[in-house]
Backbone:
C-alpha cells in the first residue's frame, strides 16, 4: 500500500501476525522516513513505549482508547483534503 499511495498517517498495533508493530514501523520508515506512525497496543510496557518513541513514533497509545481522542490525535497529522489513513491491526 505504501508503495502505491502514501497515506498521511499509519496506525499500527504492536501485536501483528508474522511481524510485530515495531518491526512494521521500521519497515515503513525505510520506505517513507517522514510518514507519521501511531503505535497502539493493549499489551503495553514501558520498554515498548520507550523503544517506539526512540524509533520516532508519532504517538504511542494504550488500548482501550477513547475514540474521540484517537481521532483528535490522528487529525493532527492528516490533511483535510484527500487524506488517507492506513490502519494495521
Residues:
Amino acid at each position: 500500500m505504501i508503495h502505491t499511495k502514501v497515506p498521511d498517517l499509519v496506525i499500527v498495533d504492536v501485536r501483528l501476525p508474522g511481524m510485530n508493530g515495531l518491526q512494521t514501523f521500521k519497515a515503513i520508515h525505510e520506505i517513507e522516513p517522514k510518514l507519521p506512525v501511531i503505535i497502539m497496543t493493549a499489551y503495553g510496557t514501558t520498554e515498548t513505549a520507550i523503544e517506539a518513541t526512540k524509533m520516532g513514533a508519532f504517538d504511542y497509545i494504550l488500548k482501550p482508547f477513547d475514540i474521540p481522542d484517537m481521532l483528535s490525535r490522528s487529525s493532527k497529522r492528516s490533511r483535510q483534503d484527500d487524506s488517507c489513513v492506513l490502519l494495521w491491526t
In short: The longest helix spans residues 21-31.
